[in-house]
Amino acid sequence: MSGRLAGRIALVTGGRGGIGRAICARFAEEGATVIAADLSETGSVGDAAPGAFQRLDVSSEAEAEAAMAAVAAGHGRLDVLVNAAGIEIEKTIEQTSLEDWNRIFAVNVTGTFLASKHALPLLRRSAAAGGASIVNFGSYDGFIADPGLAAYCATKGAVHALTRAMACDHGPEGIRVNAICPGYVDTPMLQSFFAGEGSGGQGGTVETLEQAVRDVHPLRRYGTPRDMANLVLWLASDEAAYASGQLWVLDGGLSAQVQQMRT
Questions:
Q1: What is 164-229 written as a DSSP string?
Q2: In CATH, what number is assigned to the domain containing residue 154?
Q3: CB atoms within 10 A of CB 56
Q4: DSSP-derived 3-state class of residue 105
Q5: Gap between the Cα atoms of 117 and 140, Å rounded
Q6: Which residues, 6 or more positions from 103, have their beta carbon under 8 angstroms from its beta carbon?
Q7: DSSP alpha helices (H): ranges in 30-110?
Q8: Domain that holds residue 114
Q9: Which Pfam family, any one, appears in the UniProt record (predicted)?
Q10: Is residue 116 part of a domain?
Q11: Full-model pTM
Q12: Active site residues
């Protein structure tokens, strides 16, 4: 099969979620053998999806080890790891319990750490033969903050720092590490945000909130999972062979503008 990822083996955590599912589909289109690692076969979207399924709770070291052992047994190597699993909590720090705080760090930060740690031996095999890539998921909320997302913003700042550190540590081995930093993306998580009582609520309807979000973007829309998948594809491919240690903001120009002067 031809394509930019022809013959590559890729594992996507959160691979049955909104963005993860789109990444799996995009990778498959470009010739990759894709493993979608998630908590369930249907995930947050609730229907069939591309890629072989691998059960993985990213917050569990035992499950991370087991998932990578399955990849080793089935394929012998790993060319691309995408850490797309993540959750969001819509609370200020005053509203956030210690349980909330520990849970979101366990998924968003520890999950990225564990999957990457246990994938490294497999990635090294591919790196020795020409290169390997890790793509983490940060957020524009790791640079600037939306109200009512304190713990989420903290986790994404941590992923940004971890991405740079991993790129420095493992670049000499031929393993590139980057992070994508989305803004608003049309996923089940975004719809939950619109329906919530925190930063997404404010007394408006879902429809009025959706339009308000579109209106603050210079491109007058928010992102799609496919938009995110296209950038992940590039970072995973040989076209991005010199790209490493970077935080790629993909937000339709939202964070480029002076907010009080937007038109």
A1: HHHHHHHGGGTEEEEEEEE-SB-SHHHHHHHHSSSTT-TT--HHHHHHHHHHTSTTSS-B-HHHHH
A2: 3.40.50.720
A3: 26
A4: helix
A5: 25
A6: 87, 89
A7: 61-75, 98-105
A8: 9-187+224-249
A9: adh_short_C2
A10: yes
A11: 0.91
A12: 152
